[in-house]
Specification:
Elements lengths: L1 H18 L3 E7 L5 H16 L2 E7 L4 H13 L4 E4 L8 H9 L3 E5 L10 E5 L1 H15 L3 E7 L5 H19 L3 E8 L5 H11 L8 E4 L2 H11 L2 H4 L3 E2 L6 H9 L5 E3 L2 H16 L8 E5 L2 E8 L2 E3 L4 H4 L5
Parallel strand pairs: 1-2, 1-3, 3-4, 4-5, 5-12, 6-7, 6-8, 8-9
Antiparallel strand pairs: 10-13, 11-12
Helix pairs in contact: 2-11, 5-6, 7-8
């Protein structure tokens, strides 16, 4: 009996050690110009370390070749997995192929990587966000003149936001109830990119009924451009990824809604999924996501819409 118990103890110890094996994971960020990505990096690192996973975090400052060089260094260092927030989701397929050739797990975080067989995508339901932004405008205005502000096409999410905004708006466009006066596609997600576009186009905000801004940093740039809170209070303005400044704008009526995507749960889920894949225990109910004929497993969180009716509930949750 003692021999059996000893054997069981050794076996359980082996299983526990194999599950909690120390893994090395490279985390590649596009940029930290948007404040939310720094928060992502902090929560990802904490979530990884809680599972005894060593996380090497690098940021490319929106330079594709820099990100590729960082990725190849990590591949050469034999990391067990790469978590990628791609600078350009259509131009990282070579990195995915190189990583897979070395049996390195690849997870696309927040932004899909197109035309490549990644192991997993984790993020928020961006189609829902785009639809909800447009729906909120139609619900709270009589339509009229609308400006769209969406990010660069190098970020597939920006395409998803706009496509789903347009899906909701199209019947009203066809009926003449909505008129898109400016359809702004940014060069990058930075506030400076938004400002440059606005100063170039010089939209007449006096004649605008609503602005569907994809993210809250777009709204920050818009507020700086307008420099007139009373004017913006007459325009219905949407956003995404709230900060403390968002709360102030919503309370003042300068911004009307935002899509809240809690980062900590996504970071924790990412760490758990990476550990599960690496230890061969990845099970669960996942979404089968297909983008440009390539299918992969995904875990999609649903956003929460914040406006003046529920802003007080979320004050303590928004950093």
């Amino acid at each position: 009996m003692k021999a059996i118990l000893l054997t069981l103890t050794v076996l359980l110890s082996f299983i526990q050690n194999s599950i909690s094996q120390n893994y090395k994971v490279g985390v590649l960020f596009d940029q930290f110009a948007s404040a939310r990505w720094k928060i992502d990096s902090m929560h990802l690192k904490q979530s990884m370390e809680a599972l005894d996973i060593a996380a090497d975090i690098q940021v490319a400052h929106s330079q594709l070749e820099v990100q590729k060089k960082q990725a190849r260094t990590m591949i050469a260092d034999e990391v067990d997995a790469l978590i990628i927030i791609a600078v350009d989701g259509e131009k990282m397929s070579d990195i995915v192929s190189e990583a897979k050739a070395r049996d390195i797990v690849v997870v696309a975080y927040a932004r899909p990587i197109i035309n490549s067989e990644i192991d997993f995508f984790i993020g928020y339901d961006n189609a829902e966000i785009g639809r909800r932004q447009a729906q909120s405008v139609l619900k709270n205005t009589d339509g009229g003149n609308i400006i769209l502000v969406n990010g660069p096409t190098t970020d597939y999410n920006a395409i998803v936001f706009r496509d789903n905004q347009m899906e909701v708006l199209q019947p009203y466009l066809d009926a003449g109830k909505v008129n898109i006066v400016n359809d702004i596609i940014l060069d990058s997600w930075s506030e400076m990119s938004v400002l440059l576009k606005l100063y170039d186009l010089k939209p007449n905000l006096q004649d605008v009924n609503a602005i569907i801004a994809a993210t809250d940093n777009c709204v920050s740039a818009l507020a700086e451009f307008a420099n007139n809170n009373e004017l913006l209070q007459k325009i219905y303005v949407t956003g995404q990824d709230p900060s403390k400044e968002t709360i102030k704008r919503i309370e003042m009526g300068v911004q009307n809604m935002t899509a809240f995507k809690p980062i900590q749960p996504m970071a924790k889920k990412t760490a758990n999924i990476v550990q599960a894949i690496l230890s061969g225990q990845a099970t669960g109910k996942f979404t089968n996501l297909t983008i440009q004929d390539v299918s992969f497993n995904a875990y999609l969180f649903s956003p929460t819409i914040i406006d003046q009716d529920n802003i007080d509930v979320f004050k303590v949750l928004i950093n």
